[in-house]
């Protein structure tokens, strides 16, 4: 154990922080040196995250950060940028899970958020998604884990760009369905069980901030709408794509296989038999997998792309660990080998 | 009570049949003369539909149809057309809830289904949706209740055509989310609780048959995709519309109010405060209301229209009763005054 | 309409207040003269209760109470007793839905709650449940609607006392399962969708306050435990009863029929065929019905009694309207004729 | 890898079979040599169990069993006993997950089931639960994994017997709540999503067969009732216990710690702070953990014991792997290290 790397999680009481702590606890190469929470300082991690009540981790206040090999910041948007100096002092490698360092320019940031305090760091940070940025991750100082809805969308559309099927000026509608864990651990009336169960609720009908990430990563403007539905984990993106040229199923299989066949965390599901014929959040719940699939709609000259992830995993904590593994030269899949459950609920 | 009209429900053991029986039982102007079910003949209606176990209705075999004022056929697609002569012998007014008489030409039918046995009846039948066909319903012999997903979509888009905002050649993507009651009462592995809970499942990614009805009623080709999500009742249509000309919120309010302000079963919900800012299936569960709303997305020159119905009510049995009320000269809202519940689950 | 009675709802923005407003809106003999809410004063009722957004009701502050025929207080425990004078000034008949006036003595109250401010009113109030107190309701000034879990339990056990099968010294375990609407509209972390979905959570393992009501109404001490499960509406009580003497199914049917066969809102469900063989919250969701049933377990000399209600209806607002109808000499079932839905979700 | 043990799963397409395949796939000491399914022979395992669609396993017909180190039979009750000779020919160690070999005498079996074909094997089989039978497992030929509801109950009550708090003649009521995965993968009307969502359904009001196992393992007759509730995985047992002597919390903590403090898969949860104060199925979903806790109810001289497991894991496949690890001399927790998720849905 003497050669294990030390890790800290700042903001460990939120949902994302809890997932990071779980993944790090089960990771062969990391030990958790610190888990911070101002609200729950000195309380056991298990009193907040019941799945961890068998561990002996305790929260500490975020005021004294331990010196660690890697620090994961699961702090809210706007908070990470305030504390980034402290984070970087505490650790050579910082993985931030907020939106603070995902966009590459202050202009972009200002357009979607409210003024960046440390704009000079934006171009230095690496967007975490390994399927797009595997080459940039080794040795990175500052890594920004992507947004969950953006990740689901990007995973679905990326091969179409790599293969030249899309160029960037096409009409693309992205209709996303997400679970309640996206809203975080803080509660509130709209996310109470009685008000939120069984819903199909347009919670971001237009101008969802993840549009900015998609545009940055793909060079494509998308018409983006997010609905909240009755699940806990999961983000499912249905991309209605209108290519300029005719495309065949063969073209599509070639494109997706070309991009993903060597990817350890991408599975194709496109119209086979059985109950689960296309990507579904249930099929990847609890895992770091993204599922991607498609159908052609010749009647409407449309290509429909489906992708599904667990927003807490591939869309957040799992993506962060995956990127950290690459950044630190570890086995890429270390700590991320859970296969998911069948059957599994909402999800 | 001597002036009550008599009604029969053929296919009374299915979900739609049960809703018809419930509505007719509570209707001031109808009494249920017959409820048929081959499988449950001689059993009490309450043994199948537990909400009706306080009534004394019993199923009879469908072989001997009583002579009634109105007959509702809740039989599967393809079955209604086989028995239509018997239905019309039994009752002057037949309301069919299957897809058999929704399309107006045999060509249309053949394109989406498998050959019509009584094509000469197609042009005589009236599509039930009162908001579009109120004038045609009084005295109609054969009424075809619309499909649930088509109804949700049509209710959302119709005012744009009435107001001239859409002409029929625009790009429109319709992304529908539906509950498990759409699958009917028969069960099956994919609809088992363990496999279906918590899903976002592309169950009709392309070429859903309700496209045909939408095209017929609106004169618009739509790119249509249906997802199954975790609710029981409800159909929610999100229409991503790309108008040819710039449109303002004022134009939209004018269009929707113009079409719907006198409609007893349409409510607008477009971005007010509170938890339920847009149309939601939960807000109309159990009722005959359709909720309609919209947002403008200038960045993408897009108009997003939301509509929500209870697929068993406005999308089926409620629409049928509403149309029957008009056809027979009754109070239009009779028997349909339930306001729905808050809070209410899935839904 | 000139002969309609006027009604006020104090505390109209909570779940119970919303149900009262819905029921009064659809009631043939009442019109809503006032709906109060301090938090939502001047806002439309529909902005809080989406099922009522077709009505034109608005909340007013509770400071100026209108003079009405009947006032329903849907205020929290401890608040009703503070304002009871004002309520009684405003209306000749007050129906309180809190726990403040359910127990008949200050001693009882002190044992389970924290000191009563108006103990002299306790013996004057009538416990609302019509199946037990129909005789006492006509002309009552102050009516206390029973607690939901107590109501479910009492409805299940009452016939055993009426028929002399239980005397009061028997061992009775009551294991209750309830939905999230019992927690009210205010939210909070434990009731957030992500934390509350899919649970079986012992939320009142011992000493639930409704024990006091059961003991008062039946003269029986019960071992009472309440679990929160994944539904919105509904309370289901399973009573494990160990009678002192041997009892037969015939005895039981006689007892339950004796108590309930003329009751308009009680249904028996005891082991028939079909999917819904026993009482289930889903079968009564949205309605004022209680379902009651039983099984004998000779191996363990046990009688198992099942009862199911909608906690918002028979367990609260519906019970209140039912009692009000009787108190004011109206048709007993007026405004309570909704039969419920099939299928219906959680519930 | 050359020193891995080979394993077969007979009946691999059911829910339990799928969990066995998942656990064996991720187990460091096993490789899956065969997964049988008559219905899905030659199809990929991933076409039935979507979480395994990244693996290259395929089902084979059960007619030719490979020779393996260990065979897991996930066949229905009554089927295992017919094929037990073939199973034992194929493998030195057989772990049966049906009810066929759980009871120790033919008399017991006949009382609860329908005649045993191989009664001579009953006394040779070992009941799998390691917390009770760890000593008997090493080298066992035939191991019978316990029933899920029995396991939940036994885990809750066992320490009371070990510590002498219960002797066997006490009154004990066990009220169990279970998820839909208990019903298996085959579907059916009562388990369809529309009929089963949001339920509290008494599905085994009396004489559930798992009473036999509890009686055998604890020497206690229990009044046992099982309710189906809205979750997928999970069994939660609430045991209402009436001890003959007064018992203190100190006695209880001592008893439970005495039995379980060295157990790798048991966690105590008895009234601490936070949202999850007692055992909950959600807190153990996907894991092999059992959670156990209690409260004292002096008013009713009652002890309430709560226990929660994942019925597919501790209640079935996880218990089987745990027992197999011990039987074959492997690390006891191998392959069972998943900590579960937070938050997680139904569950």
Describe the protein's architecture and organization.
4 copies of one chain form a homotetramer. With 347 residues, chain A is of the alpha/beta class. The model of chain A has no long low-confidence stretch (mean pLDDT 95). The radius of gyration of chain A is 20 Å and the shape is globular. Chain A has 2 domains: 5-124, NAD(P)-binding Rossmann-like Domain (Rossmann fold, 3-Layer(aba) Sandwich), CATH 3.40.50.720; 148-309, Dihydrodipicolinate Reductase, domain 2, CATH 3.30.360.10. In chain A, strand 4, helix 2 and strand 5 (91-96) form a beta-alpha-beta unit. The first copy, chain A, has helices at 15-25, 80-90, 106-112, 130-133, 148-162, 193-196, 210-218, 249-260, 281-284, 313-327, and strands at 5-10, 30-36, 59-60, 68-73, 91-96, 126-127, 142-144, 171-178, 200-204, 223-229, 235-242, 266-268, 290-297, 302-309. In chain A, 63% of the residues are buried. Chains A and D meet through helix 1 and helix 9 of A and helix 1 and helix 9 of D.
Average of per-residue pLDDT values of chain A: 95
Provide a count of the helices of chain A: 10
CATH topology of the largest domain in chain A: Dihydrodipicolinate Reductase, domain 2
Cα shape of chain A:
globular
Largest sheet of chain A, in brief, is: 7 strands, parallel
Distance between the termini of chain A: 34 Å
Question: Unreliable stretches of chain A, pLDDT < 50, 5 or more residues?
Answer: none
Number of strands of chain A: 14
Percentage of β-strand residues of chain A: 15-25%
Portion of residues within helices of chain A: 25-40%
Give the total of domains of chain A: 2
CATH homologous superfamily of the largest domain in chain A - what is it? Dihydrodipicolinate Reductase, domain 2
The greatest interface here is:
A-B, 55 and 54 residues
């Amino acid at each position: 154990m003497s050669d294990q790397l030390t890790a800290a999680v700042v903001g460990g009481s939120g949902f994302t922080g809890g997932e990071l702590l779980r993944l790090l606890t089960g990771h062969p190469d990391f030990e958790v040196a610190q888990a911070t929470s101002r609200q729950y300082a000195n309380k056991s991690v298990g009193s907040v995250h019941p799945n961890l009540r068998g561990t002996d981790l305790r929260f500490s206040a975020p005021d004294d950060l331990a010196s660690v090999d890697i620090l994961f910041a699961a702090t809210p948007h706007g908070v990470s940028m305030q504390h980034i100096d402290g984070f970087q002092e505490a650790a050579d490698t910082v993985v931030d899970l907020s939106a603070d360092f995902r966009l590459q320019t202050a202009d972009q940031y200002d357009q979607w958020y409210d003024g960046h305090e440390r704009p000079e760091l934006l171009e230095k940070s690496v967007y975490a998604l390994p399927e797009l940025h595997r080459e940039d991750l080794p040795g990175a100082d500052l890594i920004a884990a992507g947004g969950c809805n953006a990740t689901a969308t990007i995973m679905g559309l990326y091969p179409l760009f790599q293969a030249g099927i899309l160029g960037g000026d096409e009409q693309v509608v992205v209709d996303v369905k997400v679970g309640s864990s996206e809203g975080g651990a803080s509660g509130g009336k709209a996310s109470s069980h009685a008000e939120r169960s069984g819903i199909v609720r347009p919670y971001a009908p237009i101008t969802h901030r993840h549009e900015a990430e998609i545009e940055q990563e793909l060079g494509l403007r998308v018409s983006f709408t997010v609905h909240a539905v009755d699940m806990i984990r999961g983000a499912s993106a249905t991309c209605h794509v209108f290519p300029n040229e005719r495309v065949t199923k063969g073209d599509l299989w070639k494109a997706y296989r070309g991009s993903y066949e060597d990817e350890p965390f991408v599975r194709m599901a496109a119209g086979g038999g059985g109950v689960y014929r296309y990507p579904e959040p249930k099929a990847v719940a609890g895992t770091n997998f993204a599922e991607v699939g498609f159908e052609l709609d010749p009647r409407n000259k449309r290509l429909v792309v489906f992708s599904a992830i667990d927003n807490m995993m591939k869309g957040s904590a799992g993506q962060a660990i995956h990127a950290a593994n690459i950044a630190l030269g570890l086995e890429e899949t270390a700590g991320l080998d859970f296969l998911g459950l069948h059957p599994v609920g909402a999800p």
